[in-house]
């Protein structure tokens, strides 16, 4: 017998079907509504776009700043607000309304100005730029709402580049344009780090278009250099004075720490030129007699000669094949130190003959000649250092006294630093560290240091180079109370393949001799008053060294000084203590660098013993004492 299902179960089944159908219908309605809403939103924005123009706003990032080794700002930013509008919107509003907007923004409200704006080829026109601190957004927005034009204007916050000390640092910094679209020097080589990344956001009718493609801006990293701004200031001023005094075409100065490769100052001065025109790493020159310490150190290190080696210097005239090698004086028998002291070309040629061509090449190449140093500066030249297979009959003889090859300033300074710093080639560098916006420090990759000479050979060479300043061609570089070593150089310039009566005059100096902490390499281009390195570049070394020494005394240490060398116009103390002429200042706790400056500004001489920070002073603070009185300062380390 067939059994029928109860009617109540049949009713329940029908109810389930109805509920499912109803739910499906509601879902379909929601989908259709969403599609219609998106279409209407698209048409709404498209309609706005025809009047005001859809746009993608570029979200500004903050460029990284550039600081010196002590945290002083070298290259920074300032902020401004650019106010613009759609050209189509300006045209539709008409001149009468434009005049009201012009009055609000305090810009030209004439018909001519209006006509120029609406005829612009750009979709958006810039109306005015405000310094950020002077821009009153609330006031302008309120007035625009009263005019019923609240969506007319577009506001663009922008940052701009500026340099507190214009025209300084040009030989390595090489300024960027205000919006950093054109850079060279450090601004160029570190651009990826400094620049950050722009963000984007889409707008229509001053409303953000819903989008998942918005990108947030990424601020740039800060770059700290090894440069000391106080030293840089002195170097730039002294270089400019010497270029003018010697009526030179220009010149370069490089101040470094021989034991670390840090560059404390890098200055170039050519009257009327700035930026990449005076990039020091791009200039090539023949090193002249400054190459002789490299040759002598290699021979000493290899045991080929000793300091007792002697050579007959042919009374100043030596015939070598078809060439005549000349000295600037009629020298006879000279020892190895004397060859360097008096810069004998003939003596250098005879030293060079003790090496084979290949050994000679390898020896100088070991100091970094013929290759880039890897310093983070664009445009560095590797110089010209031909391989032995391309040498002629007299090539090695010419190279022995610095002709027939070319170098750049940093390259040659690094080589000479190797001779005096204990025999280690230290990679020269100008970037100290990179700091991210979150404060984390980025580790920088540098070339590896390498040993070239033994410490014993380096010590012997320091003594020999001390003699250059005491007895030889570098006497005008001497400093009172400080042992100085160095080497002069003079080379004729090549013009269109021929040597001329134009010169490069150079001097490399370092101090203190016992443990070199600072080296200064100077190259003067076409001096006319004098042309020898000992007469042109050595005096400039003296002028620079006696002024930067007090600024670096806390780093150098171990020197007993009695001098008045700090300049009145250099202030390096962040929170400078009050100074009164004729009254002893409080110097306790200050770095020697700052104590020397304050004492000098108060009119006193200073004798420093030790280094680091001032532990005690011989005269109490506040004492009224005659000018030129000596204050003895004891450092916190002895």
What secondary-structure arrangement, pairings included, does this model have?
Elements: H1 7-51, E1 55-59, E2 66-67, E3 73-86, H2 87-105, H3 111-118, E4 124-131, H4 137-146, E5 153-162, H5 186-189, H6 191-195, E6 199-204, E7 207-208, E8 222-225, H7 229-245, E9 250-256, E10 263-269, H8 292-301, E11 310-312, E12 317-320, E13 323-326, E14 333-335, H9 336-341, H10 345-352, H11 357-365, H12 395-400, H13 409-420, E15 424-425, E16 431-435, E17 441-442, E18 450-451, H14 455-470, E19 485-495, E20 498-511, E21 518-525, H15 533-556, E22 561-563, H16 592-602, E23 605-609, E24 611-617, E25 630-637
Helix pairs in contact: 2-3, 7-15, 8-14, 15-16
Verbal overview:
The protein is elongated. The chain contains 16 helices and 25 strands. 33% of the residues lie in helices and 23% in strands. The chain is α+β, with helices and mostly antiparallel strands and 638 residues long. Strands 2, 3, 4, 5, 8, 16 and 17 form a 7-stranded mixed sheet that branches. The chain has a 5-stranded antiparallel sheet with strand order 10-9-21-20-19, sandwiched between helices. Helix 2 runs antiparallel to helix 3 (111-118) and helix 15 crosses helix 16 (592-602). A hairpin with a 2-residue loop joins strand 12 and strand 13. Mean pLDDT is 83; it is low at 1-10, 40-53 and 558-575. It has 4 domains: 8-51; 59-223, Alpha-Beta Complex (Penicillin-binding protein 2a (Domain 2)), CATH 3.90.1310.10; 229-556, DD-peptidase/beta-lactamase superfamily (Beta-lactamase), CATH 3.40.710; 561-637, Trypsin Inhibitor V, Chain A (2-Layer Sandwich). The longest helix has 45 residues, at 7-51.
């Amino acid at each position: 017998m067939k059994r029928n299902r109860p009617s109540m179960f049949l009713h329940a089944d029908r109810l389930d079907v109805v509920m499912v159908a109803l739910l499906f219908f509601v879902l379909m309605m929601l989908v259709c509504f969403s599609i219609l809403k998106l279409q209407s939103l698209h048409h709404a924005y498209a309609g706005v776009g025809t009047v005001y123009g859809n746009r993608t706003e570029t979200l500004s990032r903050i460029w990284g700043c550039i600081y010196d080794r002590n945290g002083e700002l070298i290259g920074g930013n300032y902020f401004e607000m650019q106010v613009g509008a759609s050209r189509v919107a300006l045209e539709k509003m008409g001149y009468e309304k434009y005049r009201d907007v012009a009055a609000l923004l305090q810009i030209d409200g004439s018909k001519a100005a209006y006509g120029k704006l609406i005829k612009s080829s750009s979709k958006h026109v810039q109306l005015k730029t405000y310094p950020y601190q002077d821009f009153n957004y609330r006031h302008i927005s309120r007035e625009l709402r009263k005019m019923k034009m609240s969506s007319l204007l577009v506001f663009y916050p922008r940052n701009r580049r500026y340099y507190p000390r214009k025209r300084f640092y040009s030989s390595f910094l090489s300024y960027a344009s205000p919006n950093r679209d054109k850079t060279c020097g450090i601004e160029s080589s570190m651009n990826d780090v400094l620049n950050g990344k722009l963000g984007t956001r889409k707008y229509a009718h001053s409303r953000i278009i819903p989008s998942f493609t918005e990108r947030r801006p990424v601020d740039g990293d800060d770059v700290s250099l090894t440069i000391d701004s106080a030293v840089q200031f002195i170097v730039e001023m002294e270089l400019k004075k010497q270029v003018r005094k010697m009526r030179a075409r220009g010149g370069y100065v490089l101040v470094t720490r021989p034991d670390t490769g840090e560059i404390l100052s890098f200055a170039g001065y050519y009257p009327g030129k700035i930026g990449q025109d005076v990039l020091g790493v791009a200039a090539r020159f023949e090193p002249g007699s400054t190459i002789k310490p490299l040759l002598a150190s290699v021979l000493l290190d290899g045991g080929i000669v000793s300091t007792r080696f002697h050579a007959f210097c042919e009374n100043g005239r030596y015939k070598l094949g078809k060439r005549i090698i000349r000295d600037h004086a009629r020298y006879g028998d000279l020892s190895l130190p004397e060859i360097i002291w008096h810069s004998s070309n003939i003596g250098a040629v005879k030293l060079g003959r003790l090496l084979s061509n290949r050994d000679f090449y390898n020896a100088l190449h070991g100091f970094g000649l013929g290759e880039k140093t890897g310093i983070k500066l664009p445009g560095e030249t590797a110089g010209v250092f031909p391989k032995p297979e391309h040498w002629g009959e007299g090539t090695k003889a010419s190279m022995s006294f610095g002709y027939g090859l070319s170098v750049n300033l940093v390259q040659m300074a690094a080589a000479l630093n190797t001779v005096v710093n204990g025999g280690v080639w230290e990679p020269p560098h100008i970037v100290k560290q990179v700091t991210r916006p979150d404060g984390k420090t980025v580790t920088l990759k540098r070339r590896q240091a390498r040993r070239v000479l033994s410490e014993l050979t380096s010590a012997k060479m320091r003594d020999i180079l001390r003699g250059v300043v005491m007895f030889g061609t570098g006497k005008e570089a001497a400093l009172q109370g400080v042992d100085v070593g160095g080497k002069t150089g003079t080379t004729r310039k090549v013009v269109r393949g021929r040597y001329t009566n134009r010169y490069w005059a150079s001097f490399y100096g370092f101090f203190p001799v016992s443990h070199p902490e600072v080296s200064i390499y100077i190259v003067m281009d076409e001096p006319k008053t004098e042309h020898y390195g000992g007469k042109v570049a050595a005096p400039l070394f003296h002028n620079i060294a006696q002024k930067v020494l007090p600024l670096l005394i806390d780093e150098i240490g171990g020197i007993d000084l009695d001098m008045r060398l700090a300049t009145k116009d250099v202030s390096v103390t962040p929170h400078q203590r009050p100074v009164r002429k004729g009254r002893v200042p409080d110097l306790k706790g200050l770095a020697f660098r700052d104590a020397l400056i304050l004492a000098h500004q108060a009119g006193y001489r200073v004798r420093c013993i030790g280094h680091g920070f001032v532990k005690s002073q011989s005269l109490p603070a506040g004492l009224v004492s005659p000018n030129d009185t000596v204050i003895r300062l004891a450092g916190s380390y002895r």
